[in-house]
Amino acid sequence: MNTLYITGAGVSAASGIPTFRGEDGFWTIGSKNYTPMEMATRAMYVNNPREFLAWYYHRFATYRNHGPNEVHQWLSDKNLITQNIDGLDGKAGNKNYIAIHGRLDQMTLFHEQGDDVKAHATPWNNVDESRLHESLLELFNIENQQPVLDQSLKPFVLLFDEYYTELYRISEAQQRMLDADKIVFIGTSFSVNITQMALEVARSYDIPIEIVDPEPAHVMHRNVNYHKMTALDYIQRN
């Protein structure tokens, strides 16, 4: 059977990475002046890269050295699309997973969406925390507080006011959904576009789905099996 796994933040919780909407989540804790929904935007990167990069560094990059957990290991040979940007599935050895929202351990040229660019490693370890803002601006090649297209760099992360492009392998992700005999959603709240896209494919082609979450979102689909448990409990039963 060709099972497609689609994972969210719940999978990385056991690695010590906060889920997005929990008490200490990335979308709960903003900066001094901005909410997370305002921070994680292309507009903020363009207009206030100093604040944008510092927020990403504190909220995401500080977890860059965390390792994969048992769930990532179990998924390492699976057909996988993850919403997570932590790169832990790659660390666990999955060679062909799709990081549909990007990876924080990588960066790209700041480009017009849809342009053909490559992602490469972000040298986060070069950041000098004693002069954090200036160091981050230097790392991402931003001068005069203003990123420049095709010159500055940007975290390889899909932001709220951006859309899926081939940089994020969206066509391949859609094809994997269409080819699946079953889709298993693990640790996701169904609050982002990719899960809604997969759910619509499952409905249209009558593909059975499973939802694994301690508090699973209930969805409209005639062939759904709910597993009210953590990702770790699920893999231990499978």
From TrEMBL:
Its EC number is 2.3.1.286. InterPro entries: DHS-like_NAD/FAD-binding_dom, NAD-dep_sirtuin_deacylases, Sirtuin, Sirtuin_cat_small_dom_sf, Ssirtuin_cat_dom. It comes from the Bacteria. It comes from Pseudoalteromonas neustonica. Residues 1-238 form the Deacetylase sirtuin-type domain. Signal peptide: none annotated. Keywords: NAD, Transferase. PROSITE patterns: SIRTUIN. This is protein acetyllysine N-acetyltransferase. It holds the Pfam family SIR2.
